Amino acid sequence: MSHPANQIVVLTPVFDDWQSVMLLLRRLNEVLEVRTQQIDILLVDDGGRERIPDELLQCSWFTLGTVRILRLRRNLGHQTAIAVGLCYIEQQLECYAVLIMDGDGEDSPSDALRLVDAIRQQSAPQIVFAERTYRSEGALFRAGYAAYRFAHWLLTGRRIRFGNFSIIPAEFLSALAVIPELWVHYAAAVLRSRLPYQSIPTRRSRRLAGESKMNLTSLTLHAIRAFSVCSDVVGARVLLFSLICLFGCTSLMTAAGVIHVATSHDLPGWTFPVGGLLVLVTFQLVGLA
Predict the structure, then answer these.
(1) How far apart, in whole angstroms, are the C-alpha atoms of residue 78 and residue 81?
(2) 204-216 pLDDT per residue, tens
């Protein structure tokens, strides 16, 4: 498939957030119309119930290219909607690159322009992610997100500071489309695929309209999806940690038994019950791994 040198497809999953999407497209149009840049839009309607506004269906004010709406029969979730969109683009559209961004405006159009510039300045093709240096959510959510990033590093050995906001060279689409993990978690699938990538620092903007659907429950589900992509690595790390803990517990219990039998030193009464409980817990961890 040929890749037009000046055409980029913007992929945006949408779930009942059309007002924000219209404001986002207007801002994209304002930011990018000063460039000789062809931008087509693919909106993946993730089984929403809201009626799509007539203004968006006509979209006569969008001067950069074509606006397409891919309607899914049921709600599949944000990550799966991205996977569907990428597979559709890989099969049906020709482009130079695919820019993935949310439709609520938290992914800034000005940063989208920076991603486009970054991919054009590359000497070799790489996926470019927008790395979050600041988030606009509340303190509790930011603390939860920091805990997720730490747990991801601890369990997978990889640091992650980015999400869906990224741009993909067209030559990587065929490789991404056949990665099963893509249907679970896009960013984790890219890490898993070992495709080359880089990141640029950005600040997360605020929503253009409405309220965010992201909360601690959604973040927890998002984290579970990311961990499941690397389940073999997570399982191996948990198993090794469990075996180390088991060795340490049994060594301490053995040492306590030797001291109790071979010397006249009295051990606290809680030594053996607590030690036995630790051994049982460690066996549970081994079984979980």
Answers:
(1) 5
(2) 777 777 666 666 6
Main-chain phi, psi angles of 256, to 5 degrees: -65, -40
CA 59 to chain centre: 30
φ, ψ dihedrals at 66, nearest 5°: -100, 140
Please list the ranges in the chain whose pLDDT falls under 50: 1-2
Q: What distance in Å separates the CA atoms of residue 235 and residue 155, rounded to the nearest whole number?
A: 8
Write the DSSP string, 205-260: ---SSS-----HHHHHHHHHHHHHHTHHHHHHHHHHHHHHHHHHHHHHHHHHHHHH
3-state secondary structure of 38: strand
Chain-centroid distance of CA 199 in Å reads 14
**Residue recorded with tokens 């001291």:** 259
Cβ(41)–Cβ(25) below 8 Å: yes
**Contact predicate 126/169, CB 8 Å:** yes
